[in-house]
Structure formats: C-alpha cells, structure tokens
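Project standup — Tuesday

K.O.: blocked on the structure for the chain from last sprint. Re-posting the sequence here as requested.
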Amino acid sequence: MFRRGQTTRGNFVRGSATANDLFFVAERVLGERRAAALFETEARDSGVEPDMLEPSPQFIGRLERELAGSIGAASAHVMLSKVVSGSEVSLEEMMQMADETQQVIEYSQQLEKTSAELRSTARQLEDANAQLRELDSQKDEFLSQVSHEVRTPMTSIRSFSEILLDSDDIEVGQRQHFVSTIHQESLRLTKLLDEILDLSALERGERTWDNVPIDAEAALDRALAVCEALLRQRGMKVELGDRAQPTMVEGDADRLCQVFINLISNAVKYNDSDKPVIRLSSSVKAGNYVAEIADNGPGIAKRERKLIFEKFWRGPGGVADQGGAGLGLAISRQIVARMNGSLDLVPGPLPGACFRIRLAVMK
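H.V.: unblocked you, prediction finished:
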C-alpha cells in the first residue's frame, strides 16, 4: 500500500493518519519545503496550529491540483483518493500512474527543448536584425560618400564646360587649360565608377578571373617597375630587403600586380618625410608567400587602424595629390581574399605603415 505509518518528519496532525499521509505524499512529490509551506498556509488560513490541522475537501482538492502539475491529474487523483480512504492501490492503478508520470516527464522535456530552441531562434533573429540595421546604415553611408565623390568632378566638368559655352573670347591657353581639366575630371569620374563597380562585384563574390598558377615575385617586380617614375618624382629611396625566389601561387598576375601598385603608391602619397624611404621584402614561411611593403612616413594612427580597409577611407595628410576615392585598400583586400590570401596592416621595420600580403604557395 502507498501509505505511511504514524511517524513523520513534519509537525502535522500527529493524531491523524490521513493528514500525515497527505503530507508524506506531498513531500515526496513536491519536496519538503514546498509541501511544508502548503500545509502551514492551510493551517494559518484555518486558524489552527499545524499539528491540529484537519484537511478539508477544499484543501485536498488544492493539493491534488498541486500534485497534478508534477505527476499528472490521474496519478494525483488516484494517490490522494487512496490515501484519504486508506485503501490499497491496485496494480492497474500503479501502471496508470507510472504511465502518466512518464508522459508528464516526456512532455516537460519536450517543453524544455522547445523553449531552448525558441530562445536560440530569438537570439539568432536579434543578431540578424542587428546585422540588417548595420547593413542599412552602411548602405546609407556608402550612398552618401558616393554622391560626394561623384559630385566633385561633376561640378568641375559642369563649371568649366559652361564657361567654354558662354564665353567666345577666352584665350587659347586658358581654353586649353579648361579642356584639360574637363578631361582629367572625366577620367577621374570614370575611374571612380570603375572602382565602385569592381568593389561591388568582389564583395558579391563575383570575380572576373580564374585563379591560375602565377609567379608572385614577378608580380612584385612588375609593380615596382610601373611605380618607378612615381618613386623618382618623389625622390623616394627604395630599400630591398630579403627576397624570395620565384614562387608560384594561385591567383591572377594582373590583379596581384594591381594590389602591389596600390600599396607602393600609397607609401608614396602619404609619406611626408624629408628623406622618404620604402622597403620591400618577401619570403616563403610555413608554406606561404609573404610580401611586406613598409615606409618611413607618419604611419597610421591607432584609432584609424580599424578603418583603413573601409570604403572611401583616406589617411590624413600626404604630399601628393590624393586624387583617388579611398577605395584602393578595400579593393586590394578583396582581391587578395579571392586568391585565398590575406592583406593586413602589421608592425614593420620602418617607422611608418607596413602592409603584409600572405598567399599560399602551390605544392
């Protein structure tokens, strides 16, 4: 029988087997603290001491509802009815209680699993929503920057073309200057639009080339040759550090050369040293081709280091006409990434900035 004797750990109704047995059942199902609180509340509401409590039908009904939340309605009803009547519990009733208890346990586990899944989904939705807000903000900023960059050359083109249209007595030299300015600003505008389209395609994962075996060292030498006139014009000393042997990587020779040219020209543009120096080095380390381009310019302020690969970022100062739209580093990083490599700003051998390109060597 599911009954308890006269001895109990509680202080409830020592002379009443029914009350003691009810407390025993509640204690086993609800726990000692919760069961004690339930009986003490009933005694207080009835205006009697706990050991004088005579459970009323209303209290038994309340107790049954409390037990049902843990073991199921049928099990709670069978248990309490047998305790109150003092009858034995049949095997069939025991099986019914066991089945219902198991169902309650399984249902509780399902609820916990569902609740955890809902919390995870909610967190994912919050993260996705935050990303969408950030992308929307970036889109607005991008459009604003594009508008500003386009407006500048367009304003020059419009102004000088209006002067040429409205004035017939312009000197030949001045007219030539205006036409040259219009031409230069048109080229600048075309380059800007090309860069925007190029960067957009790269960010979408669209590339206009297939990665094939190329010599990374040859691309670096070619870029240095292309930039020779710019380096001479600035009077920039070129220091060659350790150089790797011809090294094959997977990529596109023209695109890799474009990246090297951008890094070298940036080292020229932003170097305000009286004795400007650029240092190039390359090596093969741990299966990677590593090239570094460093300069002795002012470097990049700590607060700006996280921004240098953002669209339209341009460093302060510089000795040459900046001209560009600040897309070079963003495009360069995307190009290197499409070659399964990396482009990073790292501490270098000179006081200024140092950029490192890392590409996997072909086996």
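K.O.: great, moving the ticket to review. Residues 1-17, 317-323 have pLDDT under 50 and may be disordered. The CA atoms of residues 215 and 248 lie 5 Å apart.
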